[in-house]
Each structure stands twice: as C-alpha cells, then as structure tokens.
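Narrative of activities, Objective 1.

The group set out to show that a structural description can be obtained from nothing but a protein's sequence at a throughput compatible with the screening campaign. Below is one input-output pair from the validation batch, recorded exactly as produced.
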Amino acid sequence: MAMVRWAPDGPEIDATVAARGMKLAVEYFLRQIQQGNIRCLVERGVGDDEGRHRLSFKYRDRELLLIVADDGQVLSEELTMAPRKFVWK
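Output recorded for this entry:
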C-alpha cells in the first residue's frame, strides 16, 4: 500500500505516517500543520536518485526525512532531533 500519493499540486501523505515518524500524536501533528508550525519541503531526485523523492518535515527540535519512490512507497525514514538548549541563570 502506498503511503504517498502524487497529486497535481504535490504529494499527499498519510498523516499517521508523518506523525508517527516525528513521534507526535496525529491530532497534534495535524493541528501544527494547519497552524503553519511544521515546515515541509519536497525534492525530486536527479541522476542516480531519479525516481525517488525526499520529503522533509521540520518542527521545533526535530526533522523527519522520508525517501519515497514514484509509486508512493516509503523507502526510508530518518528522524533527527536536536539537543535542547538550556540557559543557565
């Protein structure tokens, strides 16, 4: 089953896939998307990466990278979380 569908105006991804990948509740993820707090970027592979796409989701201290095939299958996913910064007073 494809997790991403390619629509004329860009990819459509199952919110549960992205939310789970970012370690967020689906409802919270959707609310943050609607409020514009999660930034998304889609890149099309060229050369050796032809037929693959990179979808990036960034929110606060975390970034999810999904590599997706033309048929919508998620080939890989990677979550990077930046360490929190503390200010000593």
